[in-house]
Design brief:
mainly beta, 8-stranded mixed sheet, 4 helices, 19 strands, disordered N terminus
């Protein structure tokens, strides 16, 4: 199951929409450039943008275009598995503060394949008044493949942050993506008693919604600690897979699921979507669990065996 009680009971704080009726969601979705703004998010700060394009040349995919404004960069592509570039997104300041607005735009062109990750966690730092904004827009063209596997986002106590990810798929394209969020810093005995995080994840194919999710995490909210909410787990993660059909059996899902005092993982298949939910205590543990699912579904979706980015082991 999809932690149904978690989402139902947290309706004031965690809003989940999964609806294929375009009329129902059109008013609340919009394009990436129409992301909800507020006077706080217009405050001056780093205005950073990174644009990437990956295309197929011969028997492998290459980074064909890249441009940046402000402190967003990319390392040179790595090819640990030959034809597929592993791209490491860099944010040299190491964190996002109030007033910062960061935008990452990725285009994976027809029949190309790219894996994107980050060499370290992203951080939203404490801010008293200004809101920080991070936007990611990924376009996957016809018969192309994209893997969006960033490391965790740490939201410091007192942060005021918004994170929006939109993925637009064309016919025949395939996508595997996850996002991991840690509220507070448990290792430093810091909870998430103040601040907020607004989070959106949208997956569209040919202009029609496949998965729309909206969440608002309020510092100090009962939803963070109650059994019907996040149950005192500081780290939550979602992994979405699409583009391979209804071929992952219930037995295969059940073999990967778990429920313990330290972590929980559930997997649900809905038509062409596979949705994996995770609650836990540590980012490294979360990544290992999600990577285990990824290693099972990648051969089905991408027709390639799992090849973990080297940076995950540093």
């Amino acid at each position: 199951m999809l932690f149904a009680c978690w989402h139902a009971a947290c309706s004031q704080h965690l809003h989940l929409i999964h609806n294929n009726d375009e009329e129902t969601v059109r008013a609340g979705s919009g394009r990436m450039n129409a992301v909800m703004q507020s006077p706080e998010s217009e405050s001056p700060g780093w205005q950073a943008e990174l644009r990437l394009a990956i295309e197929r040349r011969g028997d492998r995919s290459v980074l064909s275009q890249r441009s940046h404004v402000g402190p967003l960069r990319i390392q040179r592509p790595f090819y640990p598995e030959g034809a597929v570039p592993h791209l490491y997104l860099l944010h040299p300041p190491g964190g996002v503060v109030g007033g910062d607005q960061l935008s990452i735009q990725v285009v994976v062109r027809e029949k190309a394949h790219a894996l994107l990750t980050t060499p370290a966690a992203n951080k939203f730092y404490r801010c008293e008044q200004k809101q920080a904004l991070m936007r990611q827009h990924i376009q996957v063209h016809r018969d192309a493949c994209c893997e969006w596997l960033p490391q965790e986002t740490i939201v410091y106590e007192g942060a005021r942050a918004e994170s929006v990810t939109r993925v637009d798929l064309e016919q025949g394209s395939r996508f595997i993506g996850w996002e991991m969020t840690c509220l507070g810093r448990p290792a430093a005995n810091e909870s998430f008693a103040r601040g907020y995080l607004r989070q959106r994840f949208e997956l569209w194919r040919e202009g029609k919604p496949l998965w729309l999710e909206r969440a608002r995490y309020e510092g100090g909210s009962p939803a963070l600690n109650a059994a019907w909410g996040l149950a005192d787990f500081p780290l939550s993660a979602t992994m979405i897979v699409t583009g391979y059909g209804n071929s992952f059996t219930r037995e295969e899902c059940a073999a990967l699921e778990l429920k313990s005092t330290e972590e929980r993982l559930s997997i649900t298949q809905m038509d062409d979507l596979l949705v994996c939910r995770y609650l836990g205590q540590q980012a490294q543990q979360a990544r290992r669990r999600l990577a285990a699912v990824w290693s099972k579904v990648r051969p089905l979706v991408m027709q390639r065996a799992a090849c973990e980015p080297r940076v995950w082991n540093t």
